[in-house]
Design a protein that fits this description.
CATH superfamily of the largest domain in chain B: Response regulator
Oligomer: heterodimer
CATH topology of the largest domain in chain B: Rossmann fold
Structural class of chain A: alpha+beta
Largest interface: A-B, 17 and 16 residues
CATH architecture of the largest domain in chain B: 3-Layer(aba) Sandwich
Largest sheet of chain A: 7 strands, mixed
Helix content of chain A: 40-55%
Radius of gyration of chain B: 24 Å
Helix content of chain B: 25-40%
Shape of chain A: globular
Number of domains of chain A: 1
Number of helices of chain B: 12
Low-confidence stretches of chain A: none
Largest sheet of chain B: 7 strands, mixed
């Protein structure tokens, strides 16, 4: 006998809560609240310094890298471009859609709101077209904020969100951050063929 | 029976179909108070002025009218000392009212106020005889100072001075290094000459400006002359020294056979000037009495063109925190991230931004649900005063934290005036 579709109520509640926040106080306010929460979480991460970039990569492989701890293993594509195979929100989205077939109303507005230039997208170098779902507004700033807790050879690092791919396969590109990093759209496009998320890591001199 | 209190409002009988209110002093005596007529179709503005003009240092009897036509009715039945009028009103405009007042009630002073300042308005107001021009929103203290000085009649000489020519007046202004303007009227012709530290810097006459206007005015052979201060100095159009201008005017008159070598004959000019205490000029223009010669000009608050000075968000936010009772002004992104702020100590503006974002968003959502359209302002009243939220551009909003005694009308007016400039400055 089949167990049928089973809801992960912890995740479902979170997804529905986003919808409630959008309804109650608008997409902009809801976005801000989620981002602030994500940043606060990131700030709880212990600071770490890796002697070399190779040590940083090794920490990804053995899952001790703080970025890996919040999103899973990313793979270095070369030239400091990384691809993340699985979206950390993928299972939740899949579970929700498995039962309700589509995501809650208001999510499109939320995503559009996240992609707008704003103080927070400026600080964390996210959005600007690289958001493909409301969850990007949690995930992308959180990764950037976690990166602020990491240094390589004593030097700070910065993350630039270059692109992202929705479950439907639709890709989003952050032209602004592509321009700032000098990474070509083709490289990101190709990375997203096999990954859900693509970002650039800069070691700040 | 209504309880009488200082600054309280007592309804007067209907005079033209609407109630006028007057403010009386603590003893209920209003006979000796100067009378001010506020003319504005904007109810908020009239309400705010009526509530705030009188204080410990200024007590006047206040009349109100919602149009120029109503104002003339009030003027006909009351001796009004000063008219404070908006420009843009349905029916008779403030400028038309000004002209009527100057023709029918020549000793009634007029202050023009408008939320839509333009050089054309200012020029027209000056030519029609306005004492002062003030931009909305203005600080109530600034307006009180303006009114107080305008009403200082004891410092004004009025009458006809025989044997004084226009050239004499201009020379004396030059010697006293005055910063003022002369309004010259001969029949239907009007001219204005601006002085800055004794130098003639600008003139207007009909469609003429600059030296052409100056020489045209110097052709006047008599009439009425008013000396007054000015709010904003227009762009300088005259650079020649006073002496050279007077000599050139005399030469032109000689050539045209219109006068003697000493300049235009203005022996029958009605001269109205004010003798004032010697004081230093306020920043941004206004008064320079220098030698303290008999010809000085009316003092008064000289509002500077503040928009030119406001180059940063902090400057703009200080427009709010400078209002008595306003202690915090924040510009917040709609996502709740703080863009800039001026706050009293102890206020966590980052947290205020985050919380206010929720309140602002909730207000917008409610309006949307109720079909009320776009949110223009939201006010939350607390025991110790209100918090006002108002959108700025598409992506931000203002949070103004005030004490319970703060002038809410003034805050509203400043929000209306500065919102677009704040959005522009913040690039939002």
């Amino acid at each position: 006998m089949s167990e049928g579709k089973i809801l992960d109520i912890a995740h479902i509640s979170f997804l529905d809560m986003i919808k409630v926040m959008i309804t109650m106080s608008g997409a902009a306010s809801a976005k801000g609240a989620l981002i602030r929460n994500a940043i606060n979480t990131a700030e709880k991460i212990k600071e770490v310094d890796y002697p070399t970039f190779e040590d940083f990569l090794a920490a990804i492989e053995n899952s001790t890298n703080p970025i890996t701890q919040v999103e899973g293993k990313a793979t270095h594509q070369g030239g400091f471009v990384f691809g993340l195979t699985n979206c950390p929100f993928g299972p939740s989205i899949k579970n929700y859609m498995g039962v309700f077939e589509k995501l809650p109303e208001g999510y499109a507005d939320f995503t559009e709101e996240f992609n707008k230039p704003s103080k927070v997208t400026e600080i964390y170098r996210v959005g600007e077209g690289a958001g493909v779902s409301p969850f990007c507004s949690v995930h992308q700033p959180m990764r950037s904020a976690v990166a602020e807790r990491i240094s390589i050879g004593g030097k700070k690092i910065k993350i630039y969100q270059l692109g992202c791919k929705a479950g439907s396969g639709k890709k989003g590109f952050a032209d602004r951050w592509l321009a700032e990093t000098g990474i070509s759209r083709e490289v990101v496009d190709k990375t997203l063929d096999n990954h859900m998320c693509c970002y650039y890591l800069q070691i700040v001199d | 029976m209504k309880k009488m209190r200082r600054g309280g409002l007592l309804p007067l009988p209907d005079q033209v179909g609407r109630k006028f209110y007057t403010t009386v002093n603590v003893l209920g005596e209003k006979e000796n108070l100067k009378k001010i007529l506020i003319v504005d179709d904007e109810e908020d503005m009239v309400w705010s002025l009526r509530q705030n003009i009188n204080n410990d240092y200024l007590q006047v009897e206040i009349f109100t009218a919602a149009s120029g036509e109503e104002a003339l009715t009030v003027l006909s039945s009351n001796h009004i000392d000063l008219v404070l009028t908006d420009i843009r009103m349905p029916g008779m405009s403030g400028l038309d009212l000004l002209l009527e007042v100057k023709n029918r009630f020549p000793y009634t002073m007029v202050i023009i106020m408008t939320a839509f300042p333009s050089n054309e308005f200012k020029k027209e107001a000056l030519l029609r005889g306005s004492l002062h021009f003030i931009e909305k929103p203005f600080d109530i203290k600034e307006l009180r100072d303006l009114i107080r000085h305008a009403l200082r009649e004891e410092n004004v000489f009025k009458g006809t001075v025989a044997g004084v020519g226009l050239a004499d007046v201009i020379q004396i202004n030059g010697l006293s290094r005055a910063t003022s303007l002369l309004r010259v009227k001969q029949g239907e012709q009007l001219g204005v000459i601006y002085f800055q530290e004794g130098q003639v810097v600008h003139a207007m006459c009909g469609d003429l400006e600059g030296e052409d206007a100056f020489f045209k005015i110097m052709e006047f052979t008599g009439g009425r002359l008013d000396s007054m201060s000015f709010n904003d100095l227009p762009a300088r159009t005259i650079n020649a020294p006073v002496e050279a201008l007077i000599i050139e005017a005399a030469r032109r008159l000689d050539e045209s056979g219109g006068g003697d070598s000493t300049g235009p004959d203005c022996a029958d000019i009605d001269l109205e000037v004010q003798i004032n205490e010697i004081k230093s000029a306020p920043a941004g223009g206004g008064i320079n009495h220098g030698s303290g010669l008999a010809f000085a000009v009316q003092t008064g608050t000289e509002p500077v063109n503040r928009e030119d000075e406001m180059s940063s968000l902090k400057d703009l936010l200080s427009e709010f925190t400078n209002i008595p009772g306003v202690n915090t002004a924040c510009l917040v992104g709609r996502d709740g991230f703080l863009l800039d702020s001026i706050a009293m100590s102890g206020i966590d503006t980052e947290m205020i931004g985050a919380i206010a974002s929720s309140g602002f968003g909730a207000s917008e959502s409610m309006g949307k649900q109720l079909g009320k359209g776009a949110l223009s302002m939201s006010m939350i009243e607390f025991a110790n005063g209100p918090v006002m939220l108002s959108p700025v551009g598409d992506d931000a909003f203002l949070v103004i934290v005030a004490d319970k005694d703060a002038n809410l009308g003034m805050i509203r007016l400043k929000i209306k005036k500065h919102a677009s400039l704040i959005a522009e400055t913040a690039a939002i």
